[in-house]
Amino acid sequence: MPDPNPAIVERQRLSTLREALDAMTDARRQTFEAHLDTIRRLTIAAEYKDVDTAGHIERIGLYAEALSRALGFSKAEAERMRHAAPMHDVGKIAIPDSVLLKPAALDEAEWAVMRSHATLGAQLLSRSPSPLLQLGETIARTHHERWDGSGYPQGLQGENIPVEGRICAVVDFYDAVTMKRPYRPAVPRKEVLQMMAQRSGEHFDPDILKTFVAIQDEVVHVYEQGRRQSGEHK
Questions:
Q1: At what angle do helices 75-84 and 53-70 cross, to 10 degrees?
Q2: What residues have CB less than 8 Å from 229, skipping those under 6 apart?
Q3: Total Cβ atoms within 10 A of residue 175
Q4: Rounded to 5 degrees, what are φ and ψ at 184?
């Protein structure tokens, strides 16, 4: 029997390797899409309790992605932030409607219940093998920590707070205050930025806040695009 043609053997080997690589790439894509589907379902669940949440979680992801890029994150890291940041408030699923939807300011006991959403959200996302859900857990647990250590649930301070939590603290506060709520009107963006500047070094990481202010053109674009897509008008 003649020896096989080396060129033919090499082409067959390369073809087999390409098929294996394509199969691996497709499997990874399907896994990643499953992760994203999990995130969407978790965040959509919150929409059933608070109609204002839908736009909020979308903007939080886009703001976090833009801010992460401006801070020097890689494209892949910034994209992960876009998908993980919307999980920051997933723990609110477990908060009673009487507290979450109260059309007035919360009393001290109600605030204690509301603050538990950070720990509850982290517990919900914990022990996942998915790096994306692990990032969501970190953000859920730490987005209410403050630079000066006065935040919750752990009272972390400065760079002991994961940078992802510090990023989400900035974009979450900004978007929450610029939103209209049942107990107050929306605060204009410029006023919100002034409020945040007064809390730089206390509530917020000064460098992250400075970078966020520097990308306001992109932030406003995200906000206005969301309003157009939702059909909202002034």
A1: 160
A2: none
A3: 21
A4: -165, 155
Instruction: Report the C-alpha dihedral over residues 32, 144, 189, 102, rounded to 10 degrees.
Output: 100
CA distance 211 to 195: 16
Instruction: Read off φ and ψ for residue 232, nearest 5 degrees.
Output: -75, 140
C-alpha distance from residue 182 to each of 102, 105, 113, 179, 186 (Å): 8, 10, 19, 10, 10
Residue 234 reports pLDDT greater than 50: no
Rounded Cα distance between 78 and 140, Å, is: 17
Q: What is the pTM of this model?
A: 0.80
Provide the b/e sequence for 13-43 (b: ≥16 CB within 10 Å).
eeeeeeeeeeeeeeeeeeeeeebeebbeebb
Residue 186 banded pLDDT, cuts 50, 70, 90: confident
Identify residue 207 by its one-letter amino acid code: D
Q: How many other CB atoms sit within 10 Å of the CB of residue 202? A: 13
Sign of the dihedral defined by the CA atoms of residues 124, 129, 135, 136, in that order: negative
How far apart are alpha carbons 99 and 208 in whole angstroms? 31
